[in-house]
Write a structure and sequence with these properties.
Order of helices and strands of chain A: EHEHEHEHEH
Distance between the termini of chain A: 27 Å
Strand order of the largest sheet of chain A: 2-1-3-4-5
Shape of chain A: globular
Strand content of chain B: under 5%
Helix content of chain B: over 70%
Oligomer: heterodimer
Distance between the termini of chain B: 42 Å
Structural class of chain A: alpha/beta
Amino acid sequence: MTGDDTLHRILYVEDDADIRKIVSMSLEMVGSYTVASCGSCAEALQVVDDFGPELLLLDVMMPDVDGPATLRELRKRTSAENAPAVFITAKVQAGDMAQYRRLGVYDVIVKPFDPMVLPERVGQIWQQYRSGAYDHAG
Amino acid sequence: MTTPDDMVAAELARLSADFVARLPEQLQAVEDEVTAWLDAPDDPERFEILSHRLHQLKGSGSTFGCPGISRAARTLEQRLDTYRRGIDAGEPPAAADVESAVERLQNEVLRARGQSRLPEVNG
């Protein structure tokens, strides 16, 4: 944490290389965030401690280790145990949301999304989190 | 002067063109995986591979300017799920619903590449 209310560092995990590229670019160039962009849970675990994320942005459906399992692994690291987690998914059903909440997911961004407006959406979620407005998703 | 928004929009356009160029290859992979899975529908690994590919097509299609691809991938995903549930229930359904969903995806690939004159399906 930097001592102010501004979001700086986002750890982003997404297996689709093209989506990962455009989202990272948008978050960095349009949103002015610093993004650690990872293609898998294993990559995320390699960088998380040095990066010290303030927010976790995770794709849900990934091969091998999916979003929920990636979040569970990241939560074991002190560097990510308290960062709010946001899932990106094309499929949200009532049961999914309840499961995500039990995992401690703060919010969900539904695919498809416009990469150009994603930074603003992430900024809104961060502001809600910082203001303590926990009961908003689902 | 080029703004960050312009640069992201230009990259989005480039990735969208790449996405469309790779669609025939993606379609071929889907067709092969559907055929393989219909031959061995009790193979969960094949189903996972196919589901993941369709999930990516569904997410990428709309992001990269091809909502018809997303809709067709979603329909095929749903039909495969229905087919699988029928198998699990001991009532194997006809594969025709799956095959028609593959045809719809084929048509959407042609449309995305400017090669189809068939009407768009929105549902």
